[in-house]
User: Which sequence fits this backbone?
């Protein structure tokens, strides 16, 4: 099935996958990817609060990974809800190196799983609406709209991570 401009819905999936890869691994137009921004960030830096009223890097990594997991679950048929791990974790002041490594691994795993789920998702369903409008849940949009929204979400938080990491260096 082709869109009005002649491109296929499968091309749309590939575009979204490419954008997610750029955001998380590299070659992003906007600047450093999440992996690039996190390079050299220690556990101590991840829980530091250079901006007292803002989330720290660890909380942002949790948040981005949790929402990638929630979007993946929706693509597999789950009713939209808040992420199983919660939106943001409770504030922590101490994070071990092992906990920081595990948190980053969960983010990477969530994004890998998301790409697999996007590839497996029926492109004919991309235009299908998901739920009623609820901004905190990101519902009331098409599956394609949700995926584009996740790209925007991740770019926003990648920028926050870059600024926080720069402030801590």
Assistant:
């Amino acid at each position: 099935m082709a869109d009005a401009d002649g491109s296929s819905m499968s091309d749309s999936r590939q575009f979204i996958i490419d954008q997610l890869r750029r955001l998380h691994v590299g070659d992003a137009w906007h600047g450093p990817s999440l992996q690039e921004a996190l390079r050299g960030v220690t556990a101590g830096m991840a829980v530091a609060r250079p901006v007292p009223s803002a989330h720290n890097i660890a909380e942002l990594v949790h948040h981005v990974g949790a929402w990638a997991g929630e979007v993946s679950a929706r693509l597999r048929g789950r009713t939209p809800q808040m992420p199983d791990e919660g939106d943001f974790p409770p504030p922590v002041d101490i994070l071990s190196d092992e906990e920081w490594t595990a948190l980053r691994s969960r983010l990477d795993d969530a994004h890998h799983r998301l790409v697999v789920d996007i590839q497996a998702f029926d492109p004919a369903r991309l235009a299908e609406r998901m739920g009623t409008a609820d901004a905190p849940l990101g519902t009331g949009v098409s599956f394609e709209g949700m995926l584009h929204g996740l790209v925007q979400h991740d770019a926003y938080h990648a920028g926050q991570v870059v600024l926080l990491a720069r402030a801590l260096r």
Notes: Confidence is low (pLDDT under 50) at residues 1-7.
